[in-house]
Amino acid sequence: MAAEMMGTVPPGLDAGESLVQLRGLKVYFPVRGGLLGTVVGSVKAVDGVDLDVRRGETLGLVGESGCGKSTLGRAVLQLIKPTAGSVFFEGADLTKLSPGAMRRRRVDMQMIFQDPFSSLDQRFTLGRVIQEPLDNFGRGNQKEKDERVRYLLQVVGLSPNWVNRYPHEFSGGQRQRIGVARALALNPKFIVADEPTSALDVSIQAQVLNLLKDLQGEFGLTYLFISHNLGAIRHLSDRIAVMYLGHISELGDADDVYAHPQHPYTIALLSASPEPDPELERTRKRIILTGDVPSPVNPPSGCPFNPRCWKAQAICREVYPPLEQKRPGHYASCHFPGP
């Protein structure tokens, strides 16, 4: 069972030079009940994930709302403390670092948040918003900070002359560019982008995605790109990890996952994604999943997808399928993979 591998690496997951490695990562939230607030259970938001993010790549993390994507992203950056497991960044286990050592590591890791309005302090000017990370880590004198802020505004497609304006004066797309500039202030190696386009108009989403792609080449960035938008994931990602109910159900190169999905959940997700070619759209078979997503407080035994899977058999209800290679470089957690 991949969720219980106690830190061992599933075959093939460590191919290439890994910047970030997750081993047996779990994040549980207590459920309290009764007058005394006694713990009566746990929400298993992330339930034993093994995953590598290779240096210089974009790993897309996709799944429906509530599957644990954002929780995993925050746990990687230690914004949420994992319940169990390890998060290695350049070989150092972040879960075991002291607060001071972890703070020094944060220079190399940043986050772009989903909501470009609430994630920016509305009392700060653009200059102060972007300069804040430099202040926090004592980078440069004031002249150097001013130059860095103006440079970053230019890099993300905004006017350097806007440093004295406030976030509320800008559109959603412009505010997200401000958030990107802030994330780049300390020249990080790794960025978690948590649904950075979901709050934006469709016409603006492509601009932000293209910006992220251009910046990756210019700054040598590594991304964990979290989204439920399959189109955005495909546009930006080198590899894709599909998440369901706290587990990784499929992992592989983006093109191969789209062309040859192995897990029934991935097949269902892709069938729900619109196809721009009207001829192909007419011939596609839409898969409608029955039932609701099981509760992460009381997940089903065996494969977590088995209550909604049209392929499910007795073994699926009893034995968790390990994440195994089904095609070259392509892994799935399924007893009966393929279309």
Give a quick precis of the structure.
This protein has 11 helices and 12 strands. With 339 residues, the chain is α/β, with parallel strands linked by helices.
What does this structure look like?
Helices cover 31% and strands 24% of the residues. The chain is of the alpha/beta class and 339 residues long. The strands form 2 sheets. Strands 6-7-8-3-9-10-12-11 form an 8-stranded mixed β-sheet, sandwiched between helices. Strand 1 (18-33) and strand 2 (38-54) form a beta hairpin. Helix 3 packs parallel to helix 5 (172-184), helix 4 packs across helix 5 (172-184) and helix 5 (172-184) runs parallel beside helix 6. The longest helix is centred in the middle third of the chain and has 18 residues, at 202-219. Residues 1-15 have low confidence and may be disordered.
SSE layout:
Layout: E1 18-33, E2 38-54, E3 58-62, H1 69-76, E4 84-89, E5 92-93, H2 99-105, E6 109-112, H3 126-136, H4 142-155, H5 172-184, E7 190-194, H6 202-219, E8 222-227, H7 230-236, E9 239-244, E10 247-253, H8 254-259, H9 264-272, H10 278-283, H11 314-318, E11 324-327, E12 330-332
Parallel strand pairs: 3-8, 3-9, 6-7, 7-8
Antiparallel strand pairs: 1-2, 1-4, 4-5, 9-10, 10-12, 11-12
Helix pairs in contact: 3-4, 3-5, 4-5, 5-6
